[in-house]
């Protein structure tokens, strides 16, 4: 079978990365978490005390950054210039600022280029906000995964509990999800939007396993 791409877009905490990772394992293809890349840039800017309007410095930093994804104990870790930033990029502070950083045109321009580069010549499943619309508009399979904000907040809350991350209440998580969705879907460049040819999946009443099966079935049927 020749190389193919699967695009999975959707709002915050809709289960995209869990689903994408499982599909990559089932089909033995590469998984690219584009949200992690925006988070990493946000983390590096904050660490270097670069303000989000210092565009020259942001561009200089972006040009020096090299991304690699590697599995460690079955968890996908993002390495930036050989440095593992997997836990840093999940902090509350990074989550709070990532939407603002990802709305900066030069950030999108350079990261989209890098994402296309990683996807070239291989079969991939890529998740994000603009994969089916902008990054890989020719992807053979496209899905838009969503769920009610309250359902997404509850799932994230449970996942945080499992990972001993207890700094945010359920209400704070839901408020953050709603704020990020609004920011991501109203920004000028590449807003969060379902591609016209993407299959919509509302997982409010589905388990993550159901979503994975649904996508796998669709891929086999569309083939
Ligand atoms: O997927 P995740 O929630 O980790 O993404 C973090 C943030 O990165 C999103 O809220 C969004 O602002 C940004 N993002 C984006 N485009 C993508 C992936 C993520 O703008 N393709």
Give the SSE map:
Blueprint: E1 5-9, H1 16-27, E2 30-33, H2 34-47, H3 55-64, E3 67-72, E4 75-80, E5 83-84, H4 92-102, H5 105-119, E6 124-128, H6 131-135, E7 141-146, H7 149-162, H8 170-186, E8 199-202, H9 208-222
Parallel strand pairs: 1-6, 1-7, 2-6, 7-8
Antiparallel strand pairs: 3-4, 4-5
The structure holds cytidine-5'-monophosphate.
Cytidine-5'-monophosphate binds at residues 12, 34-35, 38-39, 98-99, 102, 128-130, 180, 184.
GO molecular function, one term: kinase activity
Family: Belongs to the cytidylate kinase family. Type 1 subfamily.
Keywords: ATP-binding, Cytoplasm, Kinase, Nucleotide-binding, Transferase
Low-confidence runs (pLDDT<50, min 5 residues)?
none
- DSSP helix count? 9
Instruction: Report helical residue fraction.
Output: 40-55%
Q: Give the biggest beta sheet.
A: 5 strands, parallel
Cα-based radius of gyration, to the nearest Å:
17 Å
Beta-strand share of residues: 15-25%
Q: Please trace the helix and strand order, writing H or E for each element.
A: EHEHHEEEHHEHEHHEH
Binding site for ATP: 10-18
Catalytic activity: dCMP + ATP = dCDP + ADP; CMP + ATP = CDP + ADP
Keywords: ATP-binding, Cytoplasm, Kinase, Nucleotide-binding, Transferase
Main location: cytoplasm
